[in-house]
Write a structure and sequence with these properties.
The chain is 33% helix and 23% strand. The protein has 419 residues and is of the alpha+beta class. The mean pLDDT is 95.
Length: 419
Amino acid sequence: MNEEPDVIIIGAGAAGLSAAKELTRQRLSYTLVEASHRIGGRAYSEEIAPNNWFDLGCSYLHQAETNPFVPIADNLGIVLKKDKGDLFAVDQVRNYCNGIMLDENQSALRNQYDQQCTERIIASKAQGKDSAVSDLVDLDSPYAAPLMIGMATANAADIDQTSAADLVNFINGYDFSILNGYGNLVKKWGGQVPVSLNTKVTSINWNSSGVQVETNRGTIRSQRVLVTVSTGILAANHIQFKPGLPAWKEAAISAVPTQTMNKIGVHFSRDVFAAGDLGVHHTWNENGQGSEIEANVMGLNTATIFVGGRFAVWLEKQGQQTGLDFALNQLTDVFGNDIRNHIDNSIVTAWATEPLTLGSYSCALPGHANQRVELAGPIDDKLYFAGEATIVGAQATCHGAYLSGIRAAQEIKKASDSR
């Protein structure tokens, strides 16, 4: 490791890797440390079957019209599915209540309800308010359950814990799929960046003489440190700051927590899907329990079941078999019981208890959408911050983390030049 770099970067996810590349472009030296045995952070792909990759974390290139990973993937020769970019649009989703598909009239009513809720949420933000989403929707509607389930999977938080303004700030767009996984895309893109793996940071001493970062492999010194770990890790004090962070920064960390969205990936030994099954399905029962299912989008005999919010945390605590059983019940509701006879393999994520993130991605609490800007703010030209939680508009995404790393590196360069 470089003993006296210009910058110490903590975390080799998309934010840390993009910051490293930008610092190199700006002719500043760095040491990049990562607690894990691999790069990529929450971008991570595993084989669920030979040459069939499942993304445990981020899996879609959101905002594909402007997402920087789209041209990166094209330049690296990585195959994207660009013809189904509107996969998650409300009018493209099929709906099932108690295992029965909604008819055309019911689907129209459900779409109308969603549109009315969206209009109320947008109007609230336009009025300068930052309410909980739960305060802006009709919870007595028969179509409240799928809306709540869908928002919990999209935002990793239930609607009473979701800032309406934060939701409106997110820029909607197309969503591209990646044939061999988002994690593998990030791994290939960042593979040439020098990283000290298995290097866990325990404390950061930021005193008048500079910054000293304590790790399990020794002390690293510099004038500046860029922290890209999740707000879950920061809130849990897994990294000790000496002296402690100022109150405004602590408030920002608490206001933008890392929440939970889990996925159950299921691979089948043969093609179990009909031609019209490709796409997204919402399923729920009279008790309000349900999920979002993405079926065979890449044509590889797989389905992914999404759950979010408190239910995702509860389900995770019950263990992987319970998660798989739930997923199979959801699949049976949509595709019939025979689908169980062709299961080949499965992967169940557990992000709430993942020790290096303590959650999936961030969602601002009601009244606190503005805290993302505070979270991104540097402290005394010593501590800088990046990561998906620090960006507005592309928050909770891999490319948002990428953009935040570049932003932080440019801030550091500007500060360095002004000295």
